[in-house]
Design a protein that fits this description.
The complex is a heterotrimer of chains A (317), B (902) and C (174).
Chain A: H1 3-35, H2 51-61, H3 72-90, H4 107-129, H5 132-163, H6 168-173, H7 185-198, H8 210-213, H9 223-248, H10 259-280, H11 286-316
Chain B: E1 2-5, E2 8-11, E3 13-17, H1 18-24, E4 48-52, E5 61-64, E6 69-70, E7 75-77, H2 81-95, H3 112-120, E8 131-133, E9 143-145, H4 155-163, E10 170-172, E11 179-181, H5 195-199, E12 205-207, H6 208-212, E13 221-226, E14 235-241, E15 244-250, H7 263-267, E16 282-283, E17 292-293, H8 296-309, E18 313-317, H9 323-333, E19 338-340, H10 344-359, H11 367-372, E20 375-379, H12 383-386, H13 388-397, H14 400-408, H15 416-422, E21 430-434, E22 446-449, H16 452-466, H17 478-492, E23 497-502, H18 507-522, E24 528-532, H19 538-543, H20 549-559, E25 563-567, H21 577-586, E26 588-593, H22 598-601, E27 605-608, E28 617-620, E29 625-629, H23 642-654, H24 663-673, E30 696-697, E31 728-729, E32 776-777, E33 805-810, H25 824-830, E34 834-837, H26 839-845, E35 852-857, E36 860-868, E37 876-880, E38 893-899
Parallel strand pairs in B: 1-7, 18-19, 18-25, 20-21, 20-23, 21-22, 23-24, 25-26, 26-27, 30-31, 33-37, 34-36
Antiparallel strand pairs in B: 1-2, 3-6, 4-5, 4-7, 9-12, 10-11, 13-14, 14-15, 16-17, 16-27, 28-29, 29-32, 33-38, 34-37, 35-36, 35-38
Helix pairs in contact in B: 8-23, 9-23, 9-24, 14-15, 16-17, 16-18, 20-21
Chain C: H1 2-16, E1 42-44, H2 59-63, E2 69-75, E3 81-89, H3 98-102, E4 108-110, E5 125-126, H4 128-131, H5 144-147, E6 163-166
Antiparallel strand pairs in C: 1-4, 2-3, 3-5
The chains are: A mainly alpha (317), B alpha/beta (902), C alpha+beta (174).
């Protein structure tokens, strides 16, 4: 890949991602409204599309304010962490043949590592805010992330075993015969659950559960710093959706349509699924969230791992 | 010694009735006709309870709690279903004719009938009969009449006739047409008619001045205040709305006013919103220019210039300004340059009275003790005009003969009707010695009339008759001697005799009064004295040891052009106007006052002072009791307390921070300087006081309109103004429970919205307020003091002069007091002032009742209409005292009277 | 397992909502149907004779939980009481309707008008002339002074409903 193509890749993907994330604000509100028999934002521009612009103007012109009681440096850095880590993850996502920034041998491990780092954002924000709600939100993030990260990685090991590689392009290529969602259905489900929890999406958004914690770890945030958390969350959705599409649904593979479009369509479907989850499912109690991770998901993942390993061994033997 | 109420055991109180005991215990038992000061008559049947013979009695019988003694072993049930049903039924009957007009009734929201109806649970009118109606009467500027609302409890006539001695309000007609009113429309004559407003349990009698600017009780922001219209120090409650005082209510004080106020005290508040009220500093730019409003800074700068320029500063204090203001003036000008702004005779008499209060072994009576005396001698004062509430107390003192008769028949004192019958025609001695007839004469056992010198001679004769070692009076006529003997006999046969005298009578009379009290004291009687003083802080001013006003006038003459600071005082009411004119022409005058008057018109500079509704301070009553009044609402604009103005002036004069920023600081400074005044600090809790960590709210919890009352001018609601001077807040937020007695801002507890709720604030019904009544007695009689008689010759007997009349001051309740006369309602009630003459003298002058006459005395000419008074001694004439349109005269004085064509 | 199925069913049910009609009313193009007992803009009404119904009893003011009603009572020469001024600060009003419930004369009423937005808060302060309407509002027949025992101009003592003529106290008849 030439340097020019690489730069085009980097900036192209970055531009698409950020636009997409911004647009997701509108998409989510319209979809939620659709499923709740409402219209959602439909006043600004065609179909309310310019609502995004209005929101951005508003959030960018808000006063940039740091609470006097906060740990100033950490408070400012925390929102950047989530955006940076998620964007880093996209470096290894294979969008289509020829489109993608880096092909790492350990691409999947890199994504998992970045996801683990991303959790620091919420934890640091909660700590730096120096407010009880934010701190509680941060604590919840820590506990939730630790719990769900354990089987997040394990749930993907089946895919790795089947593909025989951590390289995401090879994983996609390995699905030419069959999408991994079929042999790895349990892996898909557990990864979906872990993905929802990792990106703090409803119904697993207990770190910011507004009914009890005001707004959790970002209670004290306003203006564009709050906006960064928002963008980070949407980028997280895109990332998890893209990963699901890549790991379980054959990535860019598909007939007729160009590969990029296949990738985009598949990702979009999972984004819509994320919104549907938010529209339909209530938030669980925190202890149940933890119990679900440790008592249901982790054993299930281990079982999936053992069975997959056995099958792979048997077939290779 | 116990009784049982609903099977719970309580201590029996055989001298009380069950209703009193229940209320004292905090039990809610409805009642109408009973009043703690009026006793029981059992007329309304509302306080029915069930009484049981013994613990085995299951049936019981209904009795009226107010008519049943709380004797030992009594068993009653308040909660009994039959008693409850009976009480509900009584209310339902009372309500059959009650009109459907609570929304337009001034009593609504503080109505005892509303409270009792809710208490008994009556909600729907089942009676379909048409309601009987009455026509109302015009009852004068004080009391409004709406007879349809009457429930025939008879409290009004029992108060008005039996308690206050009025005879122009009566119960008329019969059965359910009973009507309470006058024989014909007309002003209620009693000086205490305003109490009907509080006595009436519903809206038949309501405050006519409140009706002019009607506000519900829950909307009034209140301040515990003191009546400024005489020296007795009655406690009042001023209610404010939209920045102006709306009404004055009685604030219960067990030792002073009890449940009742006089009409001057209740309705005089109008002076604070009268057109004469000063609202901004006034400045005279040049000697011949007129006064015009100025900003506070400008005025203070001008004041500082005045203080620098003048040939010395002198301060003239005021008997109607607070102790703090007078003290601040004294501190500013120095003790040698601090003068009393009172007439010369009045100043001497007040100083003498103060000396006697300190030296005599005879204690000074509270009003409650005056009421409890069983014989009284009043010397030289028409108390109904100079200290009206004392007149009501003296009227009660005459009931002791009836109470003694009741004791002989084993009748309880609370059984009002029985006591009245038992004591019919029996009255304790009340001997009045005045120059003219008074409205208390009907209660007197004997009256003596004459000019003050004659009364002084009479008093000296009484003292001599009581004790031969008292100075003898030469040349007393036989009739007077016999009267004196009789008075002495009456006083010495009493257990608790009372002697009343005042500054009006002059020094000879004061000495004679003291000698009478001493003689009685020597005989071992529990004697007490009441000194009647002219103004609300006369004694407080005297305690600051000011120099006489005449010296100030003389000093101005000598010193060239001094700067005089006149504090809350119209000098034209203190000395002949020529002398004042000369003084004001010489001196540069700065006046600090709340009211515009002749002295203000002559001033260079006027600073607006807070009055009694928007100011705070301490007053010393004639009893020697220091009491605090606290503002009901923040003063508007630049108006502020006199002591605060003076503090700022003092700071300007020597360019330092003011000595005080708050009332507590100036009070403490005053107490530190005068050992006698050390007690004033404790007259009320300081501004630092907190109940449950919070201030006491001035606004009731239901205060309305907070976010709308200022919205036409300013849409943003300002924070409530701070009050650095008291523990009260201009807010409805604060301590929700009962405040200390000196900080009470309203009487209300859940279920008791009317003034009857005062029961819930007393230790026991009719007793002291919880936590003790407010105020501190500064002067205590020294019982060990020598009881030697005061020397001094009795004055010469009065001798007629041909063609001349001795003009005597004649006090009038609604005319003679400077401030109350500015209240529109009081001015309306004041009526025309008349020159009183003996009918024989009238004839001699060729005058008839109502004819105009010209009086010349002391270089002044006055025009007045005449009125006969047979009580006046021939050769004397009584001139209305304190009337603003009459020039000041040093009375008594000789003058001529001439007939003029009207 | 049943939890899993339930969750799937819920998701399905929500997906089906894609094909349901929208409940939103597109105000201001579409106008909502306002029920008659809607608690909107407050008015002061008149009685059937055209007189002001408000008797300035202060009950609305005391009932108001946000204290946004202020008034002052006054009287005409015949003793009929009415408010000298009557002010509602609608920038504080929460349209709870307690004032209407408290009103003993049916004078203060809440109407179906809710379009009161202003750019300046001061324009939300309504004085009596803004509040008073010409009709009796929801209660066409009621006239408080016809029922109350108080005499006003045009209605003397004993002329109200269910009243007997005034008693002659000088009458000796039993």
């Amino acid at each position: 890949m030439s340097a020019g193509a690489a730069l085009a890749n980097v900036f192209g993907i970055l531009a698409v991602l950020l636009t997409w994330a911004a647009l997701l604000i509108w998409v989510e509100r319209r979809l939620l409204a659709l499923w709740q028999d409402r219209y959602g934002p439909n006043r600004v521009g065609p179909f309310g599309l310019l609502q995004v612009v209005a929101d951005m103007i508003k959030i960018l012109t808000k006063a940039d304010w740091v609470p006097p009681f906060a740990d100033r440096l950490v408070f400012i850095l925390a929102p950047a962490v989530i955006v940076v880590t998620v964007l880093f993850s996209f470096a290894v996502i294979p969008v289509a043949p020829g489109i993608g920034i880096a092909d790492l041998d350990i691409g999947l491990l890199f994504v998992l590592a970045m996801a683990a780092l991303g959790a620091y954002s919420a934890m640091l924000a909660g700590w730096a805010s120096n407010s009880k709600y934010a701190l509680l939100g941060g604590l919840r993030t820590a506990a939730q992330t630790v719990s769900y990260e354990v089987f997040m990685g394990l749930s993907l090991m089946g895919v790795v075993m089947l593909a025989g590689s951590f390289d995401l392009r090879e994983i996609v290529e390995a699905q030419r015969g069959m999408w991994f969602v079929l042999p790895q259905f349990i892996g898909f489900l557990t990864f979906l659950a872990a993905g929802v929890a990792e990106s703090h999406r409803l119904p697993l958004d207990l770190p910011e559960g507004e009914t009890e914690l005001v707004a959790g770890y970002h209670t004290e945030y306003s203006g564009m710093k709050f906006g960064l958390f928002f963008v980070g969350e949407y980028l997280g959705i895109i990332l998890v959706s893209a990963l699901i599409a890549t790991l379980f649904f054959g990535g860019w593979l598909g007939p007729v349509l160009p590969p990029v479009l296949w990738f985009l369509v598949k990702t979009s479907v999972f984004i819509a699924l994320f919104v549907l989850l938010r529209a339909a499912l209530p938030r669980p109690r925190y202890d149940r969230l933890m119990a679900f991770a440790w008592k249901a998901m982790l054993p299930l993942t281990l079982l999936n791992l053992v069975v997959t390993g056995a099958v792979v061994l048997a077939r290779s033997g | 010694m116990s009784l049982y109420i609903d099977r719970a055991e309580y201590p029996a109180q055989p001298d009380k009735n069950l209703l009193e005991v229940c209320l004292s215990l905090g039990l809610d038992l409805p009642y109408f006709c009973w009043h703690p000061a009026l006793g029981s008559v059992g007329a309304c049947r509302q306080c029915a309870v069930k009484q049981f013979k013994d613990e085995n009695d299951q049936r019981g019988r209904l009795v009226m709690a107010c008519m049943t003694p709380a004797a030992e072993g009594t068993r009653i049930s308040v909660d009994d279903p039959e008693a409850r049903a009976f009480r509900a039924q009584v209310i339902e009957w009372l309500m059959t004719n009650h009109p459907h007009d609570c929304p337009v009734c001034d009593e609504g929201g503080e109505c005892h009938l509303q409270d009792m109806t809710v208490m008994t649970g009556h909600t729907y009118r089942r009676c379909r009969a048409a309601k009987r109606t009455f026509r109302n009467q015009y009852l004068g500027p004080f009391v409004n009449h709406e007879m349809n609302r009457c429930i025939t409890c008879y409290r009004c006539v029992r108060f008005y006739r039996d308690y206050a001695g009025g005879d122009d309000l009566e119960a008329q007609a019969s059965r359910n047409r009973v009507y309470f009113g006058r024989a014909a429309d007309g002003t209620l004559e009693s000086e205490f008619s305003g109490n009907l407003v509080e006595v009436c349990p519903t809206g038949v009698f309501t405050d006519a001045t409140l009706k002019q600017h009607y506000t519900r009780k829950w909307d009034l922001q209140n301040g515990p205040s003191l009546c400024p219209h005489c020296a007795l120090g009655c406690n009042t409650l001023i209610g404010e709305r939209y920045g102006e005082p709306r009404r004055v209510l009685n604030r219960y004080h067990h030792d002073i006013n009890g449940y009742f106020l006089c009409d001057r005290g209740r309705y005089g508040y109008g002076f604070m919103t009268a057109p004469s009220r000063l609202s901004a500093p006034l400045l005279r730019p040049a000697a011949d220019a007129s006064l015009h409003p100025a900003a506070a800074d400008e005025a203070l700068a001008a004041a500082a210039a005045l203080l620098r320029e003048g040939a010395g500063i002198i301060g003239i204090g005021s008997p109607r300004a607070s102790l703090e203001a007078n003290f601040a003036l004294r501190r500013l000008v120095g003790p040698e340059r601090f003068f009393a702004g009172v007439g010369e005779a009045e100043g001497r008499a007040t100083a003498l009275i103060l000396d006697l209060m300190r030296q005599l072994p005879v204690p000074v009576a509270t009003l409650r003790q005056a009421e409890d005396s069983d014989a009284a001698l009043v010397l030289g004062e028409d108390v109904l005009a100079t200290a009206p509430r004392l007149g009501l107390a003296l009227r009660q003192s005459t009931r002791h003969a009836a109470l003694a008769a009741a004791d002989r028949l084993n009748l309880p004192h609370w059984d009002a009707a029985a006591v009245q019958v038992a004591g019919r025609d029996q009255r304790s001695p009340l001997i009045l010695a005045t120059c003219a007839s008074t409205r208390l004469d009907d209660a007197a056992s004997a009256t003596v009339h004459g000019p003050s010198d004659e009364i002084a001679r009479f008093a000296a004769a009484v003292a001599h008759a009581l004790d031969g070692s008292a100075p003898e009076v030469a040349g007393l006529d036989e009739a007077r001697r016999q009267l004196a003997q009789a008075a002495a006999a009456a006083l010495s046969s009493a257990q608790r005799p009372l002697v009343v005298a005042g500054a009006r009578g002059g020094e000879a009379l004061i000495r004679a009064a003291a000698n009478i009290a001493l003689a009685l004291h020597r005989r071992g009687r529990a004697t007490r004295l009441v000194w009647v003083l002219p103004e609300c802080n006369s004694l407080g001013l005297a305690l600051l040891a000011p120099r006489p006003l005449a010296e100030a006038l003389a000093a101005a003459e000598a010193a060239g052009a001094p700067t005089a600071i006149v504090l809350e005082n119209d000098l034209y009411r203190r000395a002949p106007h020529r002398a004042i004119d000369a003084f004001l022409a010489k001196a540069r005058v700065a006046v600090i006052d709340h009211t515009r008057h002749a002295t203000v018109e002559a001033a260079q500079l006027v600073l607006p002072a807070a009055a009694f509704a928007d100011g705070s301070g301490t007053l010393v009553s004639s009893e020697g009791r220091a009491q605090r009044y606290l503002r009901a609402y923040p003063a508007a604009g630049d108006i502020t307390d006199g002591w605060r103005w003076l503090g700022r002036l003092g700071a300007l004069a020597d360019g330092r921070a003011p000595d005080w920023q708050s009332l507590d600081e100036v009070t403490r400074a005053c107490a530190a300087e005068f050992p006698t005044l050390a007690g004033i600090v404790d007259a009320a809790p300081s501004a630092a006081f907190r109940a449950g960590g919070r201030k006491i709210p001035r606004q009731p919890p239901r205060y309305s309109g907070r976010t709308a009352m200022r919205a036409d001018r300013q849409i943003h609601e300002p924070p409530p103004p701070a009050d650095p001077d008291s523990a009260l807040a201009f807010s409805m937020e604060g301590h929700p429970g009962q405040a200390p007695a000196a900080l009470l801002t309203w009487y209300r507890v859940p279920g008791w919205n009317s003034v009857q709720a005062v029961n819930k604030f007393q230790q026991e019904v009719g007793g002291e307020l919880r936590g003790g009544d407010p105020g501190v007695r500064l002067l205590q009689a020294d019982s060990a003091a020598a009881a030697g008689f005061l020397a001094g010759d009795a004055p010469e007997p009065f001798a007629r002069r041909p063609g001349e009349w001795l003009l005597l001051p004649h006090d009038l309740i609604f005319c003679s007091e400077e401030l109350s006369l500015l209240a529109p309602a009081v001015a309306q009630r004041a009526g025309p002032a008349r020159l009183l003459l003996h009918p024989g003298d009238l004839q001699e002058l060729g005058l008839a009742d109502g004819d105009p006459a010209q009086v010349e005395a002391g270089g002044e000419t006055m025009h007045l209409r005449v009125q006969p008074d047979p009580a006046l001694a021939p050769g004397t004439a009584a001139l209305p005292a304190g009337l603003p349109r009459l020039p000041w005269l040093d009375l008594p004085a000789w003058g001529s009277i001439r007939r003029v064509r009207g | 397992m049943s939890y899993f199925i339930n969750t799937l069913a819920t998701l399905g049910r929500y997906l089906l909502h894609s094909f349901r009609p929208r409940a939103t009313i597109q105000y201001p193009e579409e106008r909502p149907a306002i029920p008659p007992r809607w608690r909107g803009r407050i008015v002061l009404t008149r009685d059937p004779d055209g007189g002001e119904r408000c008797v300035a009893c202060y009950l609305c003011a005391v009932a108001c939980p946000v204290d946004c009603i202020a008034l002052q009572a006054t009287e005409d020469e015949h003793g009929r009481r009415y408010p000298a001024f009557f002010r509602i600060n609608f920038s504080r009003c929460i349209f709870c309707g307690y004032c209407e419930e408290a009103c003993p004369t049916d004078a203060i009423q809440l109407t179906a008008d809710f379009e009161m937005s202003e750019y300046r808060r001061t324009n939300l302060v309504y004085e009596k002339e803004h509040l008073l309407i010409d009709g009796p509002g929801k209660h066409p027949g009621y006239n408080y002074y016809r029922v109350a025992g108080l005499a006003i101009g045009g209605k003397d003592k004993g002329e109200a409903e269910n009243e007997r003529p005034p008693v002659d106290v000088r009458d000796l008849m039993p």
